[in-house]
Design goal:
2% of the residues lie in helices and 28% in strands. Strand 2 and strand 3 form a beta hairpin. The radius of gyration is 19 Å and the shape is globular. It is an all-beta fold. It is built from one helix and eight strands, in the order E-E-E-E-E-H-E-E-E.
Length: 195
Amino acid sequence: MRAGAPEVILDIRDYVTMPMTGAVDGKGQIMGLLARINFMREEPGGSKKRVFVNDLNGPLYILDKADKKFTTYLNFNGANGKPGLFHKLPTDNGFANGFISFAFDPDYAHNGKFYTIHLEDPELHGSALPDNTNLPGLNLSNYVVTPPIQPPGPSIREAVLIEWTDTNPANSTFEAPRGNSCACATTAAATRWET
């Protein structure tokens, strides 16, 4: 440190408590983890007022930086009767299962496009199509499930990439396009990978 330079102090504090998606008495490898946060990204477009946060157990949250409150933007976990979009979402085995990641289109502030990756277990009961029961504005008429790419050897999970479009990215509610536009995805590419 240079003579006369101000002393640098690092002050570490809790910033926010995540909503609990696990269980205090959770059994197994994963369910005892109270929240399984994988990524946090500031909303693009310069406002810097909101942060998007995904939990491997299913939710995509919007965190308002001013009041530090969470809004569930989308919920991917529809397995075992849960109210989310995907019935084949595995969350209870391994550390990389569930809602893996998301990324914003570079022009998200204007076009509302973003991308998600989640895993599915093809052996689980249910459709590969999203269930919009709890998100009735989600138009699935143009949602397409592509055939998985078959790798050599066995596979137990499918990684699913989806392009989403929100017609009003300024608010905290996912609002899909109306009419004949694809509300949730222009493509859904399922790729098998070995674990």
